[in-house]
Amino acid sequence: MIPELGHFSLVLALALALIQATVPLIGSFIQRVPWMRQARALAWGQLLFSLIAMGCLLQAFLTDDFSVVYVATNSNSLLPEIYKVSALWGAHEGSLLLWATLLAAWGAAVATFSRNLPLPVVARVLSVMGMVGIGFLLFMLLTSNPFERIFPMPREGRDLNPLLQDPGLALHPPMLYMGYVGFSVAFAFAIAALIGGKLDAAWARWSRPWTTVAWIFLTLGIVLGSWWAYYELGWGGWWFWDPVENASFMPWLAGTALVHSLAVTEKRGAFKSWTVLLALFAFSLSLLGTFLVRSGVLTSVHAFATDPARGTFILVFLCVVIGGSLALYAWRAPAVSGGGRFELLSRESVLLANNLLLSLFTALVLFGTLAPLIYEAMGWGKISVGFPWFNTMFVATMPFLAFLLGVGPLTRWKQDEGERLVKLLWPAFLGASIAAVFGGIFTPLESEHWFLIPLGLGLAVWILIAHMLAIWDRLKHKSGLGALFRDFAGGGRSFYGMVIAHLGVAVFIVGVTLVSHFGIERDVRMSPGDVQEESGYQFHFLGVENHRGPNYMAARGHFQVTRDGELVAELWPEKRSYFTSAKPMTEAAIDWGFLRDLYVSLGEPVGDGDWAVRLYYKPFVRWIWLGGLLMALGGLITLTDRRYRVLAKSAGKRTT
Amino acid sequence: MKARQKRLLFVAFGILGVGVAALLAINALRSNIAYFFSPSQVVAQEAPANAVYRLGGLVVKDSLQRQPDGLTVTFDVTDQVETVRVRYTGILPDLFGEGQGVVTKGRMGPDGVFVAEEVLAKHDEAYMPPEVADSLKTAHAKGVSQAAEGAKQP
């Protein structure tokens, strides 16, 4: 009975979405206030029914109701409770339900925190979000209903994919989807602005915090995904340029460009049409990502089992959204007036270059991801694009961005003098040069990418010192550390948020540079009692014993790692076989540290009690994710900036 | 400079940058793509002799052999018509299994054994790589038509 209730709630949510997509929008044209007012209640209604549907599916999981196909294929009576909850979004149908629910949640959030917005804007924004909601609810109801029943009812479930039975992956999809779906708000604001023909600084100020929140979630989602891949897949990599990873990275790149161009639009009124276009692209790329992941057109290590009907639906949906929004853009954007003027050397120019580089790189990633499809469509054969290509593209574009990152915050709006910048930035240049030389000393010349270590370290130090100088420049007429705190507590949040996010980039660069060039990965054969030496650490293999978990049996290896005779870590990597699956699962053991990770995973037994073993030494690998977290933290701090708080406080009082 | 000239300069730089990037990107792509071949195509010598490509199919049951060093394995990959032997040194992915789909990347060795640098892991065991599914279908169709022709000519 309860699964049917869930199904019915979805139908009701769809009905509400249909009304939300039409009535307030029409109301905004014929100026009917009651029609427009519906939007908020409808948005809340959609959230309510989506949550009921989620609740029903959760109940089916918790009570092991295997008459529901989705539960039978993704759960098992032995599955730990916590993973029964995360199994909700462990596969296709459930993750769509999560998409739809999060979309409704964003809608409700817009409805709640938009008291100071003109009613027609709110009505239009929520209508556009209703349209997106229709797309996803229809998709779910027509091709992937999570509440579908099976008869006769299986006695036991097939269990959740063991790879997904992990805290990292329990959190990864909701974070990522919050980001994907969050860009729908920026998209809706852009469409609403195009419909209304009013694109101004106020519009940018409204959509900016929403975009930032979405961007923060997407950042966290990608960080979690990368971290999960690192420790769970047992091969110690943190990024593979896999289509599914690219699917999340492209909206992030576009979103990052959007966050920056929104700043220009808000502060200087420039780049208006460009900002709108980016908002459309960021969300379109989110949808494209969903299409790539769910349609199975590309070979991916993620390789979700797929269904052609689903692919067709998303493709049509994608065409409607992208085609429709671009058509609207072509029709309305020329009416948008040009923005403020600026000189060749100005912060606007630097941010323009930032946007060009980010867009260029997005286009390259898109091209590389779709190249196999293009080749096949043209009959040129079946290809795969190797990750070295993506790495080359990354190295060819991103250092320029990192360089600009040091220049941007010190450059003045509208117009600046080169001489002033050189005078300000020379310490950063000096520091960067020293770091590069230092890096060069430790780089073996025969290595293929010998210039990357000096480049990476130099750029990281460049960004670090340039931002210290930016703070100094900002506070040079005040004195002491107290001024810094007062400034932070006062009106400077968005500045300090930017600084922290940019320092995150520097930390990320250090991590990537060092782990790519000094990381060591070795597959070896070890007998119990063997010792292997790796970068000054001795890995002692003590043997393998059996171990029973809640829903699996494991062969558990025991390693002791010593350095100079002292015990550094005890590691227990596992090779698990889950009762419900024929396939073994590798559970790596990692001794993590701020400066290095030691990583051991078990391959397979090779006879006589010997095992094939993977030993990794990963210096500074944590810095990669630390950098991502700092970026997200920076975003969070900008959100607490005074002008948003003032807006929130005066909500309701002001009627604009 | 007038505003108009400046804008033109921006646009010119933009177009130049994108053009150069596109050229470099496509050029770099050529050396980084790996074509897919089925065992039948490899046996028919359609695959390049000294370039990296991907070979995929089903792992033949009971063909997995481990060399004395414990890390090198050989196994046979088939599309049900032809079979190619593959050698790989390293730890096989968890989802590798006999009788199941696999995609390997590497180059043909002088001894006619395909030396794989990479054996592709799959997250989902119900999943079959699209290329493998395709090549199995083609090979199956070919097998059927050969059988039919054989029946016609006594």
What does this entry look like structurally?
The complex is a heterodimer of chains A (656) and B (154). Chain A is of the alpha+beta class and 656 residues long. In chain A, 64% of the residues lie in helices and 12% in strands. Chain A is built from 19 helices and eleven strands. In chain A, helix 1 runs antiparallel to helix 2 (33-62), helix 6 packs across helix 7 and helix 17 (493-518) packs antiparallel against helix 18. Chain A is globular, with a radius of gyration of 26 Å. Mean pLDDT of chain A is 87; it is low at 300-305 and 649-656. By secondary structure, chain B is an alpha+beta fold. Chain B has two domains: 1-33; 36-144, Beta Barrel (OB fold (Dihydrolipoamide Acetyltransferase, E2P)). Chain B is 36% helix and 27% strand. Chain B contains three helices and seven strands. Chain B has a five-stranded mixed barrel with strand order 2-4-5-7-6. The longest helix of chain B has 28 residues, at 3-30. Chain B is elongated.
Q: Alpha-carbon distance between the termini of chain A?
A: 48 Å
Shape descriptor of chain B reads: elongated
Q: Can you count the beta strands of chain B?
A: 7
Distance between the termini of chain B: 87 Å
Largest interface: A-B, 51 and 45 residues
Instruction: Examine the coordinates and then state which fold CATH places here, giving the name of the CATH topology of the largest domain in chain B.
Output: OB fold (Dihydrolipoamide Acetyltransferase, E2P)
Estimated helix fraction of chain B: 25-40%
Order of SSEs of chain B, N→C? HEHEEEEEEH
| CATH level-two architecture of the largest domain in chain B | Beta Barrel
Counting helices, strands and paired strands, the structural category of chain A is: alpha+beta
User: What is the average of the pLDDT values of chain B?
Assistant: 78
- Tell me about the largest β-sheet of chain A: 6 strands, antiparallel
Largest sheet of chain B: 5 strands, mixed, barrel
Which structural class do the helices and strands of chain B define?
alpha+beta
Number of distinct helices of chain B:
3
Q: Tell me roughly what share of residues is in helical segments of chain A.
A: 55-70%
Radius of gyration of chain B, CA atoms, in whole angstroms: 23 Å
The stretches of 5 or more residues of chain A where confidence is low (pLDDT under 50) are 300-305, 649-656
